[in-house]
Every structure is written in C-alpha cells, then in structure tokens.
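Need residues for this backbone.
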C-alpha cells in the first residue's frame, strides 16, 4: 500500500490510486501550486461527492479557494458550506474537522457570529489529543476565536481568552505554532 510520500516526486501519479484521501495528502505535501490545482480539479470532477465524501468535498473546495481571486474565492467558500454541514450531521469520524473548517469558511466570508458559534462547539485541545497531536490546529482555532470576538466587539472575559492563547503558545514547541495571520490582519484592520 502506497502513501503520499511515495508520490512526492511525481504527484500527478497519485491520480491512478483513485483514493481521494491519498490525493489530498499528496496535495498537502507538495509545493507546486499548479500541480495542486490540477489534483484538486481532478478530485472535484471525478472522485468526490456530497453523498459519499462530504468532508473531503468541503475541504477540497476550501483548498481551491486559497488559490482564487476574491470573487471566485467567495463562490467556492459558499459552495463548501453545504458539504461541511452534511459532514457535521452525517460523518461522525470527521465532525470536528468539518466544524473547524466550516468555521474557517465563515471567518473568511466575514460571518463572524457563525464562525464563533462553531468554534465554541470544538472541545478545548481536541486536536492536540489526537494521535497526530495537532496542537497547531488548536492554536489556530483559538486565534480565530479571538479574531471573531474582536470583530464582533465582544470583550467579556477577553483578557482571560487572550491569556490562555498566549500561555498555550508559550508552552508549545516552535514547530507547532502557526503564523498568526488572521490575528495580525485583524489588528491591522482595527488600527487603520
């Protein structure tokens, strides 16, 4: 059985596997954006459906949105909502991941109330407790929560929430700390 690393030198060959999860893993490993877009388009046109793979469909639409101009990005993010909502209701294995990415979708669409509502449903340190120990993902969720609160001007217990975020960063190794892009952009936005 091959894994994503087996395709690192020839990522387009992963298409022959007909395994959408493997192809997504390959997309996440490679740096060539043009090849990523080709693989994403292959997934969207051939392997993914709202009925069989709702989480992966939503995630792939979200990934594709990161390569698009603003108008097309918004369209893809809007399209990603439904599969993520389906995954939350029907795909118990990916429910929390679907909530996290739907929160990202809402955040990117500036639907901060919806984003915050989903973020608050994600158990604290959920991703760090997984076998893959994705502490960085918990930090990103906390960062989005802080940004939503700032954008919504909801400052009840804000100091404590910010303190917990900073404390968690201080206890994380440097490889588990995501670049706080959303927080930086939010601070810039309110400062201008």
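Answer:
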């Amino acid at each position: 059985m091959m894994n994503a690393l087996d395709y690192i030198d020839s990522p387009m060959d992963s298409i022959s596997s007909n395994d959408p999860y493997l192809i997504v893993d390959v997309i996440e490993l490679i740096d060539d954006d043009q090849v990523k877009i080709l693989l994403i388009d292959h997934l969207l046109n051939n392997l993914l459906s709202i009925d069989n793979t709702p989480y992966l469909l939503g995630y792939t639409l979200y990934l594709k949105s990161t390569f698009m101009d603003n108008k097309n990005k918004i369209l893809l993010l809007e399209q990603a909502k439904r599969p993520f909502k389906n995954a939350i209701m029907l795909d118990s294995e990916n429910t929390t991941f679907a909530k996290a990415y739907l929160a990202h979708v809402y955040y990117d669409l500036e639907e901060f109330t919806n984003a915050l509502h989903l973020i608050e449903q994600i158990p604290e340190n959920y991703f760090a407790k997984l076998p893959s120990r994705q502490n960085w993902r918990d930090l990103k969720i906390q960062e989005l929560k802080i940004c939503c609160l700032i954008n919504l001007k909801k400052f009840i217990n804000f100091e404590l929430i910010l303190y917990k975020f900073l404390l968690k960063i201080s206890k994380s190794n440097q490889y588990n700390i995501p670049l706080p892009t959303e927080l930086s952009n939010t601070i810039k936005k309110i400062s201008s």
